[in-house]
Design goal:
Shape of chain B: elongated
Largest sheet of chain B: 6 strands, antiparallel
CATH superfamily of the largest domain in chain A: Succinyl-CoA synthetase domains
Shape of chain A: globular
Strand content of chain B: 25-35%
Number of domains of chain A: 2
CATH class of the largest domain in chain A: Alpha Beta
Number of helices of chain A: 9
Number of helices of chain B: 13
Oligomer: heterodimer
Distance between the termini of chain B: 36 Å
Helix content of chain B: 25-40%
CATH architecture of the largest domain in chain A: 3-Layer(aba) Sandwich
Number of strands of chain A: 14
Radius of gyration of chain A: 18 Å
Amino acid sequence: MAVLVDKNTRVLVQGITGREGEFHTRQMLEYGTQIVAGVTPGKGGQEVLGVPVFDTVKQAVQATGADASVIFVPAPFAADAVLEAADAGVRVVVCITEGIPVQDTVKAVALVRQKGVRLIGPNCPGIITAGQCKIGILPGNIFTPGPVGLVSRSGTLTYEIVDLLTKAGLGQSTCIGIGGDPVLGSTFVDLLPLFEEDPDTQAVVLVGEIGGSDEEIAAEYIRTMHKPVIGFISGRTAPPGKRMGHAGAIISGRTGTPQAKVDALRSAGVPVADALYEIPDLVKQALASRT
Amino acid sequence: MKIHEYQAKEVLSRYGVSVPRGRVASTPGEARQIAESLGGRVVVKAQVHAGGRGKAGGIRLADTPAQAEEHARALIGSRLVTPQAPQGVPVHKVLIEEAISIAQEYYLGITLDRARQRDVVMVSAMGGMDIEQVAEEHPEAIVKVWIEPWLGLMPYQARQALYDAGIAREAVPTATKFLLALYRAYVSSDASLAEINPFVLTQDGQCLAADAKLNIDDNALFRHPEFNEYKEESEEDPIEAEAHRRGIQYVRLGGDIGIIGNGAGLVMSTLDEVSRAGGKPANFLDIGGGAKADLVRNALEIVLMDPNVKGVLFNVFGGITRGDEVAKGILEGIRSLDVRVPIVIRLAGTRAEEGLALLQGTELIPAVTMQEAARKIVEVTR
């Protein structure tokens, strides 16, 4: 078991013939991910790295039984690609594409939620179950199997934290980068229950950042969890009203401040690291207190 | 992207939102001509992005064209100091509008509700005030309706919100048309915020946008060539403007330690770490994923444009970004730019060893962890 994806997951790549799509398909194959199909309209019948390419997601699913999709298509067409995947019946859609207009995302997210399809992203690094399946652009070599789950709004920060965990002898179960946009297919509260139920996960690291109220909402849910959660919030010194790269990371008015997030998490009993390097020790303490 | 009031009113009126008659002026002479053509009393309004213009003296009433010219002369070229912009923002243009006879001042706003993942319309009879203050002190005075993404704002929702908010009953039919037009403008322009404050009911029963704020979703600009002409004016800081021209995510923060990293979250954490070590970051700069040497060199050049910068910290954790490419970019920067400040570099992840090997024998100061890097840059810039 793992969260959402494992060694049996059959993955198709939308936009496989593009530069990014092909590069990361190679990386995913090297990690051991089962890439069973690619989709690029008009390029059906070709092969990329030995993977058959189809014109539509529907054809790819019918021919290969793919149950997850990863999207590398350019922003103007990405929401359409999400809807195509959801309509074709895949279970999990991971949208890597950055820069999708928010109105497109709002519509796509409303529909995938209605269909019960799990969308990760957009503007995210993807999902990995250590040692089994990597879907997205995360650098596979820093992950090692173990009991720690991770869910994060940031990509490179995830790598930094995973590296610290691995070096401290703490392996990972599943790590999910949920993305940096203001509207996301999956927020913390959508995913925490999956970690709570996953027998491979013993503790969860939640990596939040300024902007929005997802961390505060997550804190309410964490009160009901049995597994320990360790938190970290980035952007504590960010000035209000400035967009710091992530479209979602902006403090507007009185919402989204780092202190409100830290306070909400702490009041729910979550140890929140002030600095990144404190995270492994907090995880060790949490794991020790469980046994 | 933030656009100016006069630009917002241009956009809104295309969708049938009623605005006062008026035109923008870049010189006092133009202001006078516009005031003459409008006839009667006019309002001269400084075009800046910061709110709180009125209190700062950026909105002035003129009884005659000569007075309008005088106000324009005082405003154009000055720096307007507002509570939202304590350092002052330069005024390049003024909007000259007919003065309107206000009977009531209301508030209308449309924006994204992130938590509900859909747009929300807000209506309040307490217009003309700071809406955040209203939200805090009288939350019940703001009526909200949420919009179904695949349906859009329905007429009944607009009516209901206006009645519930206590808008004068006889004005509701006109206000409903106004609100629906505002929503059409919001959706069609890919706006992230549309705000009319005050939304005015005039003594002769008209609904008018006395002020207008429209922010456009940067991600959607590719499908709005009509906003290209607004882009130039949207930048306040010259270094930020130059960075964006080069496709670099840069935000100026006012301190003296330049920061360059990959990934928004990692860069934000680097700022936090430098602050914890007692330093003041000069900027946020994200080179993104998979940056090549040329972009890294460009990033260094941008950061060094800030004369306050006393040292630069590179913090790169390579995933798709390769450490050797980053190192090459830095070396190229040192060769081609006049670098007179110390540089601390922390490289980890993909091809970090190769990168560090390239940097050996230079004056760059290496660090193993982010924490160590932050401490070192603070030490050498003190």
